[in-house]
Amino acid sequence: MERTKQRLFEITTEPISVDEVNDRVAARSIGAITSFTGVVRDRTGEREVEFLEYEAYPEMAETMLAQIGAEIQQRWPQIKAVSIVHRTGRLAVGEVSVVIAVAAAHRLDTFDACRYAIDRLKIVVPIWKREIGPSGEVWIEPREDLPSKTRSEGDGE
Amino acid sequence: MKIRVKLFASVRQALGRSLLELELPEGATVADLQAQLQSQFAQLHLENAGVLVAVNLRYAKPDQVLHDEDEVALIPPVGGG
């Protein structure tokens, strides 16, 4: 498979460009790239947010991102490439925290696979965020409306 | 054997450091490590807080046996995205 030389699964402290992550999965055989962009929002419920401070266990986070990529290619063999890039450090409202790009010859399944990637990321990848706003600081824990898969299941399924 | 444990996020904050060293008997498991941490740091409530253990960059089961060179980390509930 043709593929760029850049890393597909990365934790970075640098700003993330959606186009650049899409380029990581692009190839002559690819006809569809579906991507997801996570952006820092100005509030959580009633709480006003000024910054999010992301922390990761980078070596394990990149291992788990690659595992999610492998799970996707097992579930949807038509998916040719997956790239997931997550930023850490202090991010202001409007900044991009994560970009996921899923590529295939045809669009079918790229939407489901992209959704799977962000849902799994929120459950298994060792990244934490702290909200910083006028009312102080708080660690944000997983939302309860996510699929009820436990983190310790390890290899997917 | 000496096991070095990496700490992150709320656990790192609660203990005020990002690394700690534990002395464990040869053949100790992840469950033994959790028990020792809990007795040494009562303020942690590891189980109630949903803190998992990772060994060599993977989530570990309680019966996994630890070795000298293992990279161990405590993983509080994650919240990326």
What this model shows, in words?
The complex is a heterodimer of chains A (157) and B (81). In chain A, 26% of the residues lie in helices and 36% in strands. Chain A is of the alpha+beta class and 157 residues long. Chain A has a domain at 38-140: Aldehyde Oxidoreductase, domain 3, CATH 3.90.1170.40. In chain A, the strands form 3 sheets. Chain A has a 4-stranded mixed sheet, sandwiched between helices. A 4-stranded antiparallel sheet of chain A has the order 7-5-9-10. In chain A, strands 3-4 form a two-stranded antiparallel ribbon. In chain A, α2 (58-75) packs antiparallel against α3. Chain B has a single domain, classed as Ubiquitin-like (UB roll), CATH 3.10.20. In chain B, 22% of the residues lie in helices and 25% in strands. Chain B is built from 2 helices and 5 strands. A 5-stranded mixed sheet of chain B has the order 2-1-5-3-4. In chain B, β3 (52-55) and β4 (58-59) form a beta hairpin. The radius of gyration of chain B is 12 Å and the shape is globular. The model of chain B has no long low-confidence stretch (mean pLDDT 94). The interface between A and B is medium-sized, with 31 and 18 residues.
